[in-house]
């Protein structure tokens, strides 16, 4: 039964599984899990409970998760927003606080312990992180006490529901960001992390990995990549980018180890030389 369910999106192991999967997977024990909240600017979501394990994704400040197991300072969790399952350090989590009121709308912003820009910041928050703002005083937004308090620049957060309208413009803000497998911040990200952040900032739900995005998003562009326009997503095996216009594509890539703009025809030729493949699919996200 279990091999029919994607373990990236379904929490199950031989010894333990999400109670919602009972009858669908085999496990020694089923649990409902406990809610928690990410209390660090970014928390690695790893394939195994070990620092040397691959980072498959990241959890951002304020994200809600469900915790199914805690052991040896690691928590086995599922993110509420995109459903991704993995292991994160237990000290990156806290009990859930008040509902989030705002999202981080800047590429990055510091979390300060007090409304004073000269104080050493406590953390660095990233685009699409969430915060609960208890009060705004001048240029400072004060976080709720059950979120640990602290302050962020009020101009760097936006009320939930206030979204951008052009995913390509959001993606362009990450230009030259280093490539990082599993990354989802301006400190480092991968190709599908870039797409997920760009779409989420525009209020569009987006799964985490490239294959999931290719299966779930938009509608096929008639004529494929050659007919793609700004905002369309273009896929090739294991990779995705977003079109800036009819000729240029932005993607976080391991060739440059950075987020760069390529000409689409040059990219197609590069893929054919390096991988023996071609651009395979274009999806239109916005009409």
Task: Please describe what this structure looks like.
The protein folds into three domains: 2-94, SH3 Domains (SH3 type barrels); 102-159, SH3 type barrels; 167-284, endopeptidase domain like (from Nostoc punctiforme) (endopeptidase fold (from Nostoc punctiforme), Alpha-Beta Complex), CATH 3.90.1720.10. It contains four helices and 25 strands. It has helices at 167-172, 191-201, 210-216, 264-275; strands spanning 17-18, 30-31, 34-38, 42-46, 55-60, 64-71, 74-79, 85-89, 93-94, 102-104, 108-111, 123-126, 130-131, 133-137, 140-143, 151-153, 157-159, 184-185, 188-189, 219-220, 233-236, 239-243, 248-253, 258-263, 281-284. Strand 21 and strand 22 form a beta hairpin. The longest helix has 12 residues, at 264-275. The relative contact order is 0.11. The mean pLDDT is 96.
**CATH fold type of the largest domain:** endopeptidase fold (from Nostoc punctiforme)
Average pLDDT score: 96
Estimate the global geometry from the Cα principal axes: globular
CATH superfamily of the largest domain: endopeptidase domain like (from Nostoc punctiforme)
Radius of gyration: 20 Å
Which residue ranges are poorly predicted, with pLDDT under 50 across at least 5 consecutive positions? none
Structural classification: mainly beta
Number of structural units classed as domains: 3
Order of SSEs: EEEEEEEEEEEEEEEEEHEEHHEEEEEHE
Largest sheet: 6 strands, antiparallel
| Major β-sheet strand ordering | 20-25-21-22-23-24
Beta strand %: 25-35%
Number of helices: 4
């Amino acid at each position: 039964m279990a091999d029919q369910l994607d373990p990236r999106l379904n929490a199950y192991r031989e010894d333990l599984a999400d109670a919602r999967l009972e009858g669908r997977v085999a496990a020694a024990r089923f649990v409902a899990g406990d809610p928690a909240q990410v209390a660090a600017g970014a928390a690695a979501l790893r394939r195994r409970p070990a620092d040397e394990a691959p980072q498959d994704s990241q959890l951002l400040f304020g994200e809600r998760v469900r915790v199914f197991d805690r052991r040896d300072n690691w928590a086995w969790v599922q993110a509420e927003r995109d459903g991704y399952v993995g292991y994160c350090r237990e000290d990156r989590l806290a009990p859930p606080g008040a509902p989030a009121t705002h999202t981080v709308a800047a590429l990055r912003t510091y979390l300060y312990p007090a409304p004073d820009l000269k104080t050493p910041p406590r953390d660095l928050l990233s685009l699409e992180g969430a915060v609960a703002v208890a009060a705004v005083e001048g240029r400072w937004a004060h976080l709720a006490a059950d979120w640990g308090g602290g302050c962020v620049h009020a101009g760097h957060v936006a009320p939930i529901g206030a979204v951008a309208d052009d995913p390509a413009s959001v993606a362009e803000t990450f230009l030259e960001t280093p490539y990082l497998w599993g990354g989802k911040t301006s400190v480092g990200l991968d190709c599908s992390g870039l797409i997920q952040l760009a779409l989420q900032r525009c209020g569009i739900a987006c799964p985490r990995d490239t294959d999931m995005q290719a299966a779930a998003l938009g509608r096929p562009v008639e004529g494929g990549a050659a007919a793609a326009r700004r905002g369309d997503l273009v896929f090739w095996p294991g990779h995705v980018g977003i079109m800036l216009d009819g000729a240029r594509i932005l993607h976080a890539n391991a060739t440059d180890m950075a987020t760069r703009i390529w000409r689409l025809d040059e990219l197609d030729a590069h893929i054919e030389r390096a991988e023996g493949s071609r651009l395979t699919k274009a999806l239109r996200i916005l009409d």
